[in-house]
Design goal:
The chain has 259 residues and is an alpha+beta fold. The chain has two domains: 163 residues, no CATH class; 77 residues, no CATH class. The strands form two sheets. A four-stranded antiparallel sheet has the order 1-4-5-6. A two-stranded antiparallel ribbon has the order 2-3. Helix 1 runs antiparallel to helix 2, helix 3 crosses helix 4 and helix 5 runs parallel beside helix 7.
């Protein structure tokens, strides 16, 4: 079954500069927000016209995530030809509430389609949607297919198992040392994540410094470093490819403006 698209838009696309100003204003109200994220927000706004106010983007722990609403509205703006959704029966287990769904997005009538898979079970969905695993799997599949079809490197909110808590901390027994600095346990956890997911240490360090808003990692507060390690672990687990794109933005120094 293909899902038809609407001919008209539910939200007119505003002037790019006005939309960017609005997005930046709303984003700066977020406590954990890196300076580089503004540059990424400008690129996202210019290319996809996503709006924070309309609920098409979310910023979590200083990182951008697109929403299901934003992806569907983008598909309408791009005049998407249709979306085909089907359950992958061989991988589904209704007794265990585990479902795997395949979605195929057709950007144009002549397109061969872009496929994406979404899975959901009680272990990777929020307790708020427990019992609706099939619908969650469908949403995740559609989101992945739309992101492929339109070249969107951002992970979608709905693909995350849970939204990381920006103020969650490690338990006291796992946080040695006082004052600023990472502490041995936090540093060990960061090194473990880097090894496990094969991340570039120098890029992770650059990202951490930018995320924490300090000149060096040693100068960052323990809370911000712990928050960074938590979100890095979650992002690496949920969407390593999106994380690699984020880290790659730190591989080249910023271009200085002409004097």
């Amino acid at each position: 079954m293909k899902l038809p698209t609407r001919e008209s838009e539910t939200r007119p696309v505003p002037n790019f500069k006005r939309l960017l100003r609005e997005n930046v204003r709303l984003a700066r109200k977020t406590r954990l927000f890196s300076s580089r994220a503004i540059d990424l927000l400008a690129a996202i706004t210019r290319e996809f016209q996503f709006s924070l106010k309309a609920g098409e983007l979310q910023v979590i722990n200083g990182n951008w995530y697109v929403t299901h609403t934003g992806l569907l509205r983008l598909a309408r703006r791009k005049k998407c030809s249709g979306i085909h959704v089907e359950a992958v029966d061989s991988l589904c287990d209704s007794a265990a509430s585990r479902f795997v769904v395949k979605a195929t997005v057709y950007p144009s009538k002549n397109s061969s389609g872009f496929a994406g898979y979404g899975d959901a079970d009680p272990s990777n969905v929020s307790s708020l949607v427990r019992g609706a695993e099939m619908r969650v799997a469908e949403t995740r599949a559609v989101n992945r297919a739309l992101r492929k079809a339109y070249g969107i490197g951002l992970c979608s909110v709905e693909e995350m198992g849970t939204i990381p808590n920006p103020v969650e901390k490690f338990s006291p027994q796992n946080a040695n040392g006082n004052g600023n600095g990472t502490g041995p346990k936090v540093r060990d956890r960061l090194c473990q994540i880097i090894r496990q997911h094969k991340l570039a240490p120098e890029l992770v360090k650059a990202y951490a410094v930018d995320f924490c808003g300090s000149k060096t990692l040693r100068e960052a507060s323990r809370e911000r470093v712990e928050n960074f390690v938590l979100q890095l672990a979650d992002w690496a687990k949920k969407d390593r490819n999106a994380l690699l794109i984020q880290l790659d933005s730190y591989s080249q120094p910023k271009q200085e403006g002409a004097a």
